[in-house]
Amino acid sequence: MNPEELIASGKLEMYVCGALPEDEALEVQEAIQTFPEVRREVELIEESLLHLAETVAPPVQAMSWTAILNAIRNINTSEDTKVRSLNLPAIIGWAAAILFMGGIMWMLKQTNDLNESIQVTTTENTVLREEKVKVESQLAENTEVLEVLRSKDYQAYTLPGNQAVAPEAFAKVYLNKKDNVAYIDTKGLPAPPRGKVYQVWSLKMDPLTPTSVGLISAENEMGEGIYKFVNFPDPEAFGITLEPEGGSEAPTLSQLYTLGMITI
Amino acid sequence: MEQPNDLIIEMQNGNEKAFSRLYTMYSEAIYGIIYSIVLDEKTAEELLQDVFIKVWNNASSYSVNKGRFFTWLLNIARNAAIDETRSKAFKNSRKNLSTTNFVDILSSSDSLNRKTNAIGIKKFVDALKPACIKIIDLLYFKGYTQAEASKTLEIPLGTIKTRSRTCINELRVMVLG
Protein backbone atom coordinates (compact mmCIF):
# COMPACT_ATOMS: atom_id res chain seq x y z
CA MET A 1 0.00 0.00 0.00
CA ASN A 2 1.58 3.29 -1.07
CA PRO A 3 1.27 6.40 1.13
CA GLU A 4 -1.66 7.86 -0.81
CA GLU A 5 -3.60 4.63 -0.66
CA LEU A 6 -2.87 4.31 3.07
CA ILE A 7 -4.08 7.84 3.70
CA ALA A 8 -7.26 7.23 1.73
CA SER A 9 -7.94 3.83 3.33
CA GLY A 10 -9.22 5.19 6.64
CA LYS A 11 -6.64 3.08 8.51
CA LEU A 12 -4.87 6.15 9.88
CA GLU A 13 -8.06 7.34 11.63
CA MET A 14 -8.51 3.87 13.10
CA TYR A 15 -4.85 3.87 14.14
CA VAL A 16 -5.18 7.10 16.09
CA CYS A 17 -8.37 5.84 17.75
CA GLY A 18 -6.56 2.65 18.75
CA ALA A 19 -9.10 0.57 16.82
CA LEU A 20 -6.74 -1.23 14.43
CA PRO A 21 -5.64 -4.83 14.90
CA GLU A 22 -1.98 -5.21 15.85
CA ASP A 23 -0.63 -6.27 12.44
CA GLU A 24 -2.28 -3.35 10.65
CA ALA A 25 -1.15 -0.93 13.35
CA LEU A 26 2.41 -2.16 12.80
CA GLU A 27 2.07 -1.46 9.08
CA VAL A 28 0.89 2.10 9.80
CA GLN A 29 3.70 2.57 12.32
CA GLU A 30 6.26 1.66 9.70
CA ALA A 31 4.67 3.95 7.14
CA ILE A 32 4.73 6.84 9.63
CA GLN A 33 8.46 6.39 10.09
CA THR A 34 9.08 6.05 6.34
CA PHE A 35 6.74 8.65 4.79
CA PRO A 36 6.57 12.18 6.22
CA GLU A 37 3.20 12.75 4.50
CA VAL A 38 1.71 9.80 6.38
CA ARG A 39 3.08 11.14 9.67
CA ARG A 40 1.67 14.57 8.89
CA GLU A 41 -1.73 13.06 8.11
CA VAL A 42 -1.73 11.14 11.40
CA GLU A 43 -0.82 14.33 13.28
CA LEU A 44 -3.73 16.20 11.69
CA ILE A 45 -6.21 13.42 12.48
CA GLU A 46 -4.95 13.31 16.04
CA GLU A 47 -5.23 17.07 16.41
CA SER A 48 -8.85 17.11 15.16
CA LEU A 49 -9.85 14.35 17.53
CA LEU A 50 -7.97 16.01 20.39
CA HIS A 51 -9.93 19.21 19.83
CA LEU A 52 -13.20 17.34 19.62
CA ALA A 53 -12.58 15.68 22.98
CA GLU A 54 -11.49 18.99 24.51
CA THR A 55 -14.73 20.53 23.39
CA VAL A 56 -16.69 17.80 25.11
CA ALA A 57 -14.77 18.27 28.38
CA PRO A 58 -16.18 20.38 31.20
CA PRO A 59 -13.56 22.82 32.57
CA VAL A 60 -10.69 20.94 34.24
CA GLN A 61 -10.13 21.94 37.86
CA ALA A 62 -6.65 23.23 38.65
CA MET A 63 -6.91 21.09 41.80
CA SER A 64 -6.52 17.97 39.68
CA TRP A 65 -2.93 18.71 38.78
CA THR A 66 -2.10 19.47 42.42
CA ALA A 67 -3.69 16.18 43.44
CA ILE A 68 -1.67 14.29 40.82
CA LEU A 69 1.54 16.00 41.89
CA ASN A 70 0.87 15.19 45.55
CA ALA A 71 0.12 11.59 44.67
CA ILE A 72 3.30 11.02 42.67
CA ARG A 73 5.40 12.86 45.26
CA ASN A 74 3.83 10.93 48.11
CA ILE A 75 4.90 7.73 46.43
CA ASN A 76 8.46 9.00 46.26
CA THR A 77 8.65 10.55 49.71
CA SER A 78 6.77 7.79 51.46
CA GLU A 79 9.35 5.34 50.15
CA ASP A 80 12.12 7.57 51.47
CA THR A 81 10.60 8.10 54.87
CA LYS A 82 9.65 4.44 55.18
CA VAL A 83 13.31 3.58 55.48
CA ARG A 84 13.95 6.22 58.10
CA SER A 85 10.80 6.64 60.14
CA LEU A 86 9.60 3.05 60.16
CA ASN A 87 12.90 1.70 61.43
CA LEU A 88 13.42 4.03 64.39
CA PRO A 89 10.23 3.16 66.30
CA ALA A 90 10.83 -0.47 65.44
CA ILE A 91 14.35 -0.31 66.84
CA ILE A 92 13.15 1.53 69.95
CA GLY A 93 10.37 -0.98 70.34
CA TRP A 94 12.66 -3.97 70.07
CA ALA A 95 15.21 -2.38 72.38
CA ALA A 96 12.50 -1.72 74.96
CA ALA A 97 11.21 -5.25 74.62
CA ILE A 98 14.70 -6.71 75.04
CA LEU A 99 15.42 -4.47 78.06
CA PHE A 100 12.09 -5.44 79.57
CA MET A 101 12.76 -9.15 79.04
CA GLY A 102 16.26 -8.72 80.47
CA GLY A 103 14.81 -6.96 83.51
CA ILE A 104 12.32 -9.73 84.09
CA MET A 105 15.03 -12.40 83.74
CA TRP A 106 17.25 -10.50 86.20
CA MET A 107 14.44 -10.20 88.74
CA LEU A 108 13.56 -13.88 88.35
CA LYS A 109 17.19 -14.77 89.00
CA GLN A 110 17.26 -12.49 92.06
CA THR A 111 14.12 -14.15 93.39
CA ASN A 112 15.60 -17.59 92.81
CA ASP A 113 18.84 -16.64 94.56
CA LEU A 114 16.93 -15.23 97.52
CA ASN A 115 14.76 -18.32 97.74
CA GLU A 116 17.86 -20.51 97.68
CA SER A 117 19.57 -18.55 100.43
CA ILE A 118 16.38 -18.67 102.48
CA GLN A 119 16.40 -22.45 102.12
CA VAL A 120 20.07 -22.64 103.09
CA THR A 121 19.43 -20.44 106.11
CA THR A 122 16.42 -22.51 107.12
CA THR A 123 18.51 -25.70 106.92
CA GLU A 124 21.26 -24.05 108.94
CA ASN A 125 18.71 -22.96 111.52
CA THR A 126 17.37 -26.50 111.78
CA VAL A 127 20.88 -27.89 112.24
CA LEU A 128 21.66 -25.25 114.85
CA ARG A 129 18.40 -25.95 116.66
CA GLU A 130 19.17 -29.66 116.70
CA GLU A 131 22.64 -28.96 117.99
CA LYS A 132 21.20 -26.71 120.65
CA VAL A 133 18.79 -29.44 121.78
CA LYS A 134 21.65 -31.91 121.86
CA VAL A 135 23.84 -29.57 123.87
CA GLU A 136 20.99 -28.81 126.24
CA SER A 137 20.28 -32.47 126.87
CA GLN A 138 23.99 -33.13 127.34
CA LEU A 139 24.11 -30.29 129.80
CA ALA A 140 21.14 -31.76 131.63
CA GLU A 141 22.85 -35.16 131.75
CA ASN A 142 26.08 -33.63 132.99
CA THR A 143 24.16 -31.68 135.58
CA GLU A 144 22.49 -34.89 136.71
CA VAL A 145 25.86 -36.63 136.92
CA LEU A 146 27.25 -33.72 138.88
CA GLU A 147 24.26 -33.92 141.24
CA VAL A 148 24.99 -37.61 141.71
CA LEU A 149 28.62 -36.98 142.51
CA ARG A 150 27.72 -34.32 145.06
CA SER A 151 24.87 -36.29 146.58
CA LYS A 152 25.24 -37.95 150.00
CA ASP A 153 23.13 -40.89 148.79
CA TYR A 154 25.92 -42.03 146.47
CA GLN A 155 29.11 -43.71 147.53
CA ALA A 156 32.08 -43.83 145.23
CA TYR A 157 34.03 -47.05 144.67
CA THR A 158 37.02 -47.74 142.48
CA LEU A 159 37.15 -51.05 140.64
CA PRO A 160 40.86 -51.76 140.17
CA GLY A 161 42.17 -53.51 137.03
CA ASN A 162 42.61 -57.26 136.89
CA GLN A 163 46.38 -57.83 137.07
CA ALA A 164 46.14 -60.76 134.67
CA VAL A 165 44.12 -59.02 131.94
CA ALA A 166 44.39 -55.23 132.22
CA PRO A 167 46.55 -54.08 135.11
CA GLU A 168 46.25 -50.38 134.06
CA ALA A 169 42.47 -50.43 133.78
CA PHE A 170 40.03 -49.17 136.36
CA ALA A 171 36.43 -48.06 136.65
CA LYS A 172 34.60 -45.90 139.13
CA VAL A 173 31.17 -46.74 140.49
CA TYR A 174 28.81 -44.33 142.20
CA LEU A 175 26.23 -46.41 143.96
CA ASN A 176 22.98 -45.52 145.68
CA LYS A 177 22.43 -48.58 147.84
CA LYS A 178 18.99 -47.48 148.95
CA ASP A 179 17.51 -47.29 145.48
CA ASN A 180 20.00 -49.58 143.73
CA VAL A 181 21.08 -46.99 141.19
CA ALA A 182 24.67 -47.06 139.89
CA TYR A 183 26.65 -44.68 137.72
CA ILE A 184 29.77 -46.22 136.24
CA ASP A 185 32.59 -44.07 134.89
CA THR A 186 34.49 -46.04 132.26
CA LYS A 187 37.18 -43.48 131.57
CA GLY A 188 39.82 -45.89 132.90
CA LEU A 189 38.87 -48.74 130.55
CA PRO A 190 40.52 -49.21 127.16
CA ALA A 191 38.21 -48.86 124.15
CA PRO A 192 36.60 -52.28 123.46
CA PRO A 193 37.81 -54.05 120.31
CA ARG A 194 35.45 -54.26 117.33
CA GLY A 195 32.60 -56.74 117.88
CA LYS A 196 33.10 -56.73 121.65
CA VAL A 197 31.31 -54.93 124.44
CA TYR A 198 31.87 -54.43 128.18
CA GLN A 199 29.29 -55.98 130.44
CA VAL A 200 28.77 -55.01 134.11
CA TRP A 201 28.05 -57.68 136.66
CA SER A 202 26.74 -57.53 140.22
CA LEU A 203 28.39 -60.24 142.31
CA LYS A 204 27.39 -62.12 145.50
CA MET A 205 30.50 -63.60 147.00
CA ASP A 206 29.26 -66.67 148.91
CA PRO A 207 28.49 -68.52 146.84
CA LEU A 208 29.83 -66.57 143.85
CA THR A 209 26.71 -65.49 141.95
CA PRO A 210 27.11 -63.07 139.04
CA THR A 211 24.06 -61.17 137.79
CA SER A 212 24.17 -59.01 134.69
CA VAL A 213 23.61 -55.34 135.42
CA GLY A 214 23.79 -54.22 131.78
CA LEU A 215 26.04 -53.35 128.84
CA ILE A 216 28.33 -50.39 128.60
CA SER A 217 26.47 -49.09 125.53
CA ALA A 218 24.90 -45.94 124.17
CA GLU A 219 21.45 -46.73 125.54
CA ASN A 220 22.74 -46.45 129.13
CA GLU A 221 25.13 -43.58 128.57
CA MET A 222 24.37 -40.49 130.66
CA GLY A 223 27.35 -38.27 129.97
CA GLU A 224 30.67 -38.74 128.35
CA GLY A 225 31.86 -42.20 129.45
CA ILE A 226 29.33 -42.33 132.32
CA TYR A 227 26.65 -45.01 132.27
CA LYS A 228 23.57 -45.38 134.46
CA PHE A 229 22.18 -48.70 135.64
CA VAL A 230 19.08 -49.53 137.70
CA ASN A 231 17.24 -52.65 138.86
CA PHE A 232 19.97 -55.02 139.89
CA PRO A 233 20.33 -57.17 143.08
CA ASP A 234 22.26 -55.76 146.03
CA PRO A 235 25.89 -56.17 145.04
CA GLU A 236 28.75 -57.22 147.20
CA ALA A 237 31.11 -56.56 144.34
CA PHE A 238 31.04 -55.18 140.75
CA GLY A 239 32.90 -56.74 137.86
CA ILE A 240 33.31 -55.65 134.25
CA THR A 241 34.09 -58.22 131.58
CA LEU A 242 34.63 -58.01 127.82
CA GLU A 243 31.88 -59.97 126.05
CA PRO A 244 30.75 -60.58 122.48
CA GLU A 245 28.34 -58.01 121.14
CA GLY A 246 24.92 -58.29 122.76
CA GLY A 247 26.39 -59.53 126.03
CA SER A 248 26.49 -62.99 127.65
CA GLU A 249 24.45 -64.99 130.18
CA ALA A 250 27.49 -65.56 132.38
CA PRO A 251 30.68 -63.54 132.69
CA THR A 252 33.74 -64.65 130.70
CA LEU A 253 36.15 -64.56 133.61
CA SER A 254 39.20 -64.79 131.36
CA GLN A 255 38.17 -61.36 130.08
CA LEU A 256 37.51 -59.80 133.52
CA TYR A 257 38.92 -56.29 133.24
CA THR A 258 38.07 -54.81 136.63
CA LEU A 259 36.68 -56.15 139.87
CA GLY A 260 36.05 -54.35 143.12
CA MET A 261 34.32 -55.03 146.42
CA ILE A 262 31.53 -52.85 147.64
CA THR A 263 32.05 -52.22 151.32
CA ILE A 264 29.82 -50.20 153.47
CA MET B 1 0.59 18.69 15.90
CA GLU B 2 3.90 16.93 16.19
CA GLN B 3 4.24 14.48 19.03
CA PRO B 4 6.51 15.99 21.77
CA ASN B 5 8.89 13.02 21.94
CA ASP B 6 11.55 14.95 23.87
CA LEU B 7 9.07 15.77 26.64
CA ILE B 8 7.87 12.18 26.75
CA ILE B 9 11.42 10.84 27.14
CA GLU B 10 12.18 13.40 29.85
CA MET B 11 9.04 12.38 31.71
CA GLN B 12 10.10 8.75 31.42
CA ASN B 13 13.34 9.81 33.11
CA GLY B 14 11.34 11.23 36.02
CA ASN B 15 11.20 14.90 35.02
CA GLU B 16 8.14 16.43 36.71
CA LYS B 17 8.30 19.58 34.58
CA ALA B 18 8.04 17.58 31.37
CA PHE B 19 5.16 15.62 32.89
CA SER B 20 3.45 18.90 33.79
CA ARG B 21 3.72 20.14 30.17
CA LEU B 22 2.36 16.87 28.80
CA TYR B 23 -0.51 17.14 31.26
CA THR B 24 -1.27 20.62 29.97
CA MET B 25 -1.26 19.39 26.37
CA TYR B 26 -3.41 16.30 26.79
CA SER B 27 -5.41 16.48 30.05
CA GLU B 28 -8.39 18.37 28.68
CA ALA B 29 -8.96 15.97 25.78
CA ILE B 30 -8.48 12.98 28.09
CA TYR B 31 -10.93 14.56 30.52
CA GLY B 32 -13.41 14.93 27.66
CA ILE B 33 -13.06 11.26 26.77
CA ILE B 34 -13.53 10.17 30.40
CA TYR B 35 -16.44 12.53 30.91
CA SER B 36 -18.20 11.29 27.78
CA ILE B 37 -18.16 7.79 29.30
CA VAL B 38 -18.98 8.45 32.99
CA LEU B 39 -21.05 11.65 32.49
CA ASP B 40 -20.27 12.88 36.00
CA GLU B 41 -17.81 15.70 36.62
CA LYS B 42 -16.64 14.57 40.05
CA THR B 43 -16.08 10.98 38.96
CA ALA B 44 -14.39 12.16 35.77
CA GLU B 45 -12.02 14.42 37.76
CA GLU B 46 -11.01 11.55 40.01
CA LEU B 47 -10.48 9.26 37.04
CA LEU B 48 -8.43 11.93 35.26
CA GLN B 49 -6.13 12.06 38.27
CA ASP B 50 -5.89 8.27 38.43
CA VAL B 51 -5.08 8.10 34.72
CA PHE B 52 -2.23 10.60 34.92
CA ILE B 53 -0.84 8.99 38.07
CA LYS B 54 -0.88 5.71 36.12
CA VAL B 55 0.83 7.45 33.19
CA TRP B 56 3.61 8.66 35.49
CA ASN B 57 4.05 5.33 37.24
CA ASN B 58 3.95 3.30 34.02
CA ALA B 59 5.69 5.81 31.76
CA SER B 60 8.37 3.30 30.86
CA SER B 61 5.81 0.96 29.28
CA TYR B 62 5.26 3.46 26.45
CA SER B 63 7.74 3.64 23.60
CA VAL B 64 7.79 6.45 21.02
CA ASN B 65 8.46 3.83 18.36
CA LYS B 66 5.27 1.91 19.11
CA GLY B 67 2.18 3.99 18.41
CA ARG B 68 1.07 7.48 19.28
CA PHE B 69 1.40 8.79 22.83
CA PHE B 70 -2.13 10.19 22.49
CA THR B 71 -3.47 6.76 21.52
CA TRP B 72 -1.68 5.22 24.55
CA LEU B 73 -3.31 7.84 26.81
CA LEU B 74 -6.69 7.20 25.16
CA ASN B 75 -6.50 3.49 25.92
CA ILE B 76 -5.59 4.06 29.58
CA ALA B 77 -8.35 6.65 30.01
CA ARG B 78 -11.10 4.68 28.25
CA ASN B 79 -10.22 1.51 30.17
CA ALA B 80 -10.28 3.34 33.50
CA ALA B 81 -13.61 5.00 32.69
CA ILE B 82 -15.22 1.81 31.40
CA ASP B 83 -14.00 -0.08 34.49
CA GLU B 84 -15.64 2.61 36.61
CA THR B 85 -18.98 2.23 34.81
CA ARG B 86 -18.85 -1.49 35.59
CA SER B 87 -18.34 -0.91 39.33
CA LYS B 88 -21.27 -1.60 41.60
CA ALA B 89 -21.30 1.85 43.16
CA PHE B 90 -21.44 3.47 39.75
CA LYS B 91 -24.24 1.22 38.53
CA ASN B 92 -26.27 2.02 41.63
CA SER B 93 -25.89 5.78 41.28
CA ARG B 94 -26.45 6.17 37.54
CA LYS B 95 -28.66 4.62 34.99
CA ASN B 96 -28.52 3.78 31.32
CA LEU B 97 -25.68 5.85 29.88
CA SER B 98 -24.99 3.79 26.84
CA THR B 99 -27.22 5.85 24.58
CA THR B 100 -25.62 9.18 25.47
CA ASN B 101 -22.88 10.34 23.07
CA PHE B 102 -20.59 13.34 22.67
CA VAL B 103 -23.13 15.26 20.63
CA ASP B 104 -25.70 14.96 23.42
CA ILE B 105 -23.09 16.35 25.81
CA LEU B 106 -22.26 19.22 23.50
CA SER B 107 -25.92 20.07 22.95
CA SER B 108 -26.76 20.03 26.63
CA SER B 109 -23.70 21.84 27.98
CA ASP B 110 -22.63 25.43 27.85
CA SER B 111 -18.98 24.47 27.43
CA LEU B 112 -19.10 25.33 23.76
CA ASN B 113 -19.31 29.00 24.60
CA ARG B 114 -15.94 28.95 26.31
CA LYS B 115 -14.02 27.13 23.59
CA THR B 116 -11.85 28.96 21.10
CA ASN B 117 -12.96 26.84 18.21
CA ALA B 118 -16.49 26.54 19.47
CA ILE B 119 -18.11 27.94 16.39
CA GLY B 120 -16.43 25.41 14.10
CA ILE B 121 -17.33 22.54 16.37
CA LYS B 122 -20.90 23.76 16.71
CA LYS B 123 -21.20 23.90 12.97
CA PHE B 124 -19.68 20.46 12.69
CA VAL B 125 -22.01 18.99 15.23
CA ASP B 126 -25.00 20.56 13.59
CA ALA B 127 -23.93 19.31 10.22
CA LEU B 128 -22.78 15.90 11.38
CA LYS B 129 -24.76 13.00 10.00
CA PRO B 130 -26.15 10.56 12.54
CA ALA B 131 -23.95 7.86 10.96
CA CYS B 132 -20.82 9.91 11.65
CA ILE B 133 -21.88 10.63 15.21
CA LYS B 134 -22.32 6.91 15.82
CA ILE B 135 -19.03 5.87 14.29
CA ILE B 136 -16.90 8.55 16.01
CA ASP B 137 -18.64 7.82 19.31
CA LEU B 138 -17.85 4.12 19.16
CA LEU B 139 -14.32 4.20 17.72
CA TYR B 140 -12.97 7.29 19.45
CA PHE B 141 -14.93 7.91 22.62
CA LYS B 142 -15.93 4.36 23.56
CA GLY B 143 -12.79 2.60 22.33
CA TYR B 144 -14.40 -0.04 20.14
CA THR B 145 -12.12 -1.95 17.76
CA GLN B 146 -13.00 -1.73 14.07
CA ALA B 147 -14.32 -5.30 14.24
CA GLU B 148 -16.54 -4.51 17.25
CA ALA B 149 -17.84 -1.35 15.58
CA SER B 150 -18.55 -3.29 12.40
CA LYS B 151 -20.55 -5.82 14.35
CA THR B 152 -22.44 -3.26 16.46
CA LEU B 153 -23.37 -1.02 13.51
CA GLU B 154 -23.86 -3.96 11.16
CA ILE B 155 -21.63 -2.36 8.56
CA PRO B 156 -18.79 -4.17 6.69
CA LEU B 157 -15.24 -3.56 7.98
CA GLY B 158 -14.18 -1.71 4.84
CA THR B 159 -17.13 0.64 5.14
CA ILE B 160 -16.25 1.36 8.76
CA LYS B 161 -12.81 2.51 7.66
CA THR B 162 -13.91 4.68 4.77
CA ARG B 163 -16.78 6.16 6.73
CA SER B 164 -14.60 7.08 9.69
CA ARG B 165 -12.20 8.66 7.21
CA THR B 166 -14.98 10.73 5.71
CA CYS B 167 -16.43 11.75 9.07
CA ILE B 168 -13.11 12.71 10.65
CA ASN B 169 -12.18 14.58 7.50
CA GLU B 170 -15.31 16.69 7.88
CA LEU B 171 -14.37 17.33 11.50
CA ARG B 172 -10.88 18.29 10.44
CA VAL B 173 -12.01 20.80 7.88
CA MET B 174 -14.16 22.54 10.43
CA VAL B 175 -11.76 22.42 13.37
CA LEU B 176 -8.46 23.05 11.64
CA GLY B 177 -9.73 24.99 8.65
From TrEMBL, chain A:
Membrane-spanning residues: 86-108
Pfam families found in the cross-reference section: RskA_C
GO molecular function: sigma factor antagonist activity
Top-rank taxon, per record: Bacteria
Keywords: Membrane, Transmembrane, Transmembrane helix
UniProt record, GO biological process: regulation of translation
CC per GO annotation: plasma membrane
Record organism: Aequorivita lipolytica
Name of the protein this chain belongs to: Anti-sigma factor
Domain Anti-sigma K factor RskA C-terminal: 95-252
UniProtKB/TrEMBL annotation, chain B:
Keyword Transcription assigned: yes
Superkingdom of source: Bacteria
This protein's record includes keyword Transcription regulation: yes
Pfam entry (one): Sigma70_r4
InterPro entries: RNA_pol_sigma-70-like (IPR039425), RNA_pol_sigma-70_dom (IPR014284), RNA_pol_sigma70_ECF_CS (IPR000838), RNA_pol_sigma70_r2 (IPR007627), RNA_pol_sigma70_r4 (IPR007630), RNA_pol_sigma_r2 (IPR013325), RNA_pol_sigma_r3/r4-like (IPR013324), WH-like_DNA-bd_sf (IPR036388)
A GO molecular function held by the record: sigma factor activity
PROSITE patterns: SIGMA70_ECF
SUPFAM superfamilies, per database record: Sigma2 domain of RNA polymerase sigma factors (SSF88946), Sigma3 and sigma4 domains of RNA polymerase sigma factors (SSF88659)
Keywords on record: DNA-binding, Sigma factor, Transcription, Transcription regulation
Boundaries of every RNA polymerase sigma-70 region domain copy: 22-89, 129-172
GO annotation terms (biological process): DNA-templated transcription initiation
Similarity comment text for this entry: Belongs to the sigma-70 factor family. ECF subfamily.
UniProt xrefs under PANTHER family: RNA POLYMERASE ECF-TYPE SIGMA FACTO, RNA POLYMERASE SIGMA FACTOR SIGZ
NCBIfam families named among the record's database cross-references: sigma70-ECF
Protein name listed in UniProt: RNA polymerase sigma factor
Highest classification ranks of the organism: Bacteria, Pseudomonadati, Bacteroidota, Flavobacteriia, Flavobacteriales
